[in-house]
Automatic annotation (TrEMBL):
<protein>
    <submittedName>
        <fullName>Class F sortase</fullName>
    </submittedName>
</protein>
<dbReference type="InterPro" id="IPR042001">
    <property type="entry name" value="Sortase_F"/>
</dbReference>
<dbReference type="InterPro" id="IPR023365">
    <property type="entry name" value="Sortase_dom-sf"/>
</dbReference>
<feature type="region of interest" description="Disordered">
    <location>
        <begin position="1"/>
        <end position="33"/>
    </location>
</feature>
<dbReference type="Pfam" id="PF04203">
    <property type="entry name" value="Sortase"/>
</dbReference>
<keyword id="KW-0378">Hydrolase</keyword>
<dbReference type="GO" id="GO:0016787">
    <property type="term" value="F:hydrolase activity"/>
</dbReference>
<dbReference type="InterPro" id="IPR005754">
    <property type="entry name" value="Sortase"/>
</dbReference>
Amino acid sequence: GGDAGGPGRHPSPAARRAARPAPPSAPLPRSRAASLRIPSLGVDAPVIGLRLDRERRLTAPPVDDPKPVGWYTDGPAPGERGTALVVGHRDTRTGPAVFAPIERIRPGARVEARRVDGRTAVYTVYAVRTYAKAHFPDQEVYGDRGRPELRLITCGGAYDHRTGYAANVIAFARLTEIRERTGAR
């Protein structure tokens, strides 16, 4: 037998770098989101546009439809520089909704935002955090990191039928790949 810890047992730093997809060299031009996929969770959802309400709070998708996610349309489009915001319900009055499985998302999970121009901006989750709604860190969640990033936002924590969920679950992701129109889904 050979030395189990000898050369060739672990890939070299250059080989490890080559195994990771290179980050996109430049952000994409504007094109709105058409759908959002999270393959590891079985999520494949249509996207609707969201805006701020009169109190300058981000709205949510309609409570009577569990399927769509909402993309904040006044923020970055998929693949654009800045922090893009996507909101989805965990559940509705009729049962589980699009982000019901979000508690299972882990760093390394891929999030695919297909754009109306046919390209797909692929993000990779690097952190998942839960914040009490009373202590929501706006700058940490919404702040611009100077590169294309994505936040998946849903409810979490304890549920009270009078006040709703006590917390928000946020998945933090960064752009790691751009698939052109001709790329396989």
